[in-house]
Amino acid sequence: MAIRWGKCVKKSCEEAQRGDLIPISDGEAFECPLCGEPLIEEGAEAPVPVETPAPRASAFTSAATMNTLVSPSASESGNAPAKKRSSPVALIVGVLLLVAILGVGGYFVWNRLHGANATGTVDPEKTILRLAGSNTIGDELGPALAAAFLKDQGATDIQIHAGAKPEEKFVQGVLPGDTSPSFITIAAHGSATAFTALAGQACDIGMASRKIKPDEAAKLTSLGDMLSPASEHVLGLDGIAVIVSSSNSVDRLDKDQIMRIFTGDITDWSKVGGSQGAIKVYARDDKSGTYDTFKTLVLAGKPLAPGAQRFEDSKALSEAVAADPNGIGFIGLPYILSAKAIAVSDKGTVPLMPTRLTVSTEDYLLSRRLYLYSPGSPTGKYTRKFIELAISKAGQDVVGNSGFVTQNVSEIAQTAPEDAPQEYKQLTRDASRLSLDFRFQAGQTALDNKAKVDLDRVVSLIADMNYTGDNVMLFGFSDGSGNSGSNQALSLTRANAVEELLVQRGLKPAIVRGFGSRLPIASNDTEDGQARNRRVEIWVKK
Question: How confident is the model at residue 94 (pLDDT cuts 50, 70, 90)?
Fold first, then answer.
């Protein structure tokens, strides 16, 4: 976007008194941002005021011109009448004024050359990617990925800036062969806005801290099947932490207690094992994917407690809870900060804290996936390249460094639970679990979109560790909706489905077993709990 430069000539306006040039983007009103009067464009003749003020230097006044303002010129010497010499104080003031003017001028020159003006706007013609949606992603992870992407493209002078509005940022860098920067813009106003922005062609990639809803996908069919691997990309993993102040003695709650607290049914901490005190509820706003996921997983469609304090910003919510001994809230893992996360349990399961281990395997009850959504056949040059970088090992390192849980696979030392089947205990005694589970599309034995990418991650890890298929074991599990025999058969069928896909990639597992509905990680009373229990674990033996 081109920049026009003008000056304000209204005598009473501070901008006019300073005499600085003011940058205005094409399409914006060419008027003074301070007083609203029309500007005189650079180079145009200004109207003569009734009382002409003393000469003032503009942002681009040269040092030589400034000298005529603070000291006599050579032409004033000789026979001309002597003028009063400037005092040392006046000279010092003049020098300081010169430094200030040159500094302001340099700032505007830099911005003119580098594409961004003083209000944080960017040039749409130099904007190569537009991201919109989740605040959870867009606050820090989105800008970090944008910077990593520009670096991967060979850009230099990479910078992250606040945008013109709250919850907006832009990242700039000079791509090879260019002399001015290119931009990636990030508007993080909530997951719901990812899909409205995609529908309105206001972004190239939607960021969501929840899965797209059927009605949202239906409105985007012109962009392709948003549930297909071409459009839905799992960016990383997160756990919704239930947080309290560090001074609060409560350190665990079950899902029913959490639901009753956040819907206003339980209003005093003494009812859940804490000290007496009225519970104060803090929650994200309605546009938030964090709130949407929490509502689905915990609230069972019930409204929040009356008087719940709502937040658009994750950090602000966390800080408010940390400062309130009677407060409780929910937040993504990177935003626990100085608050205290509590362990969460469900019917028939042990309480688990939201850690990298419990979230990476999605065993933690309130674990969730972070998504990027794009058109199935994007027209932008950089859309597919950005997504490929984001889900690559390098991109997942950025995800991990931003406080979320990376999808890069690792070995985890884990002991089998006491109530595990005897064969399971025996097989896992001298083995390590990999930091993921394979999960399936609803009601099917076909892997979901994340699992399809995880297959290649697993094969790469096994090769890097110098292991072979002889080291690999697959253990399938089902939900508890059927009888023992059918659950056993279905769990083995799912394990065999993963085995077949690994064989296609040159990796033949040594042991494949099905353990039915044993070792549930969530309640089988809900669809979400059943989906979590339908899984295939992958272990490696030494």
Answer: low
* Pick from 282, 283, 277, 281: nearest CA to 247: 277
**How many residues in total does the chain contain?**
542
Give residue 34's pLDDT band: very low, low, confident or very high (50, 70, 90).
low
123 token code pair: 């040039």
> Could you tell me the pTM of the whole model?
0.71
Q: Is the pLDDT of residue 54 over 60?
A: no
List the structure tokens of 380. Answer: 């932008």
Domain definitions of the chain by residue range: 3-114, 124-234+372-388, 237-360, 409-541
Distances in Å between the alpha carbon of 162 and those of 167, 191, 234? 8, 20, 26
Helix (H, G, I), strand (E, B) or coil at 478: coil
Per-residue pLDDT, averaged over 259-267, amounts to: 97
Give residue 96's pLDDT: 56
Q: Is 3.40.50.800 the CATH classification of the domain at 409-541?
A: no
Alpha helices in 115-246 (DSSP H): 135-138, 141-152, 192-199, 214-218
Homologous superfamily (CATH) for 237-360: Periplasmic binding protein-like II (3.40.190.10)
> What class is the 124-234+372-388 domain?
alpha beta
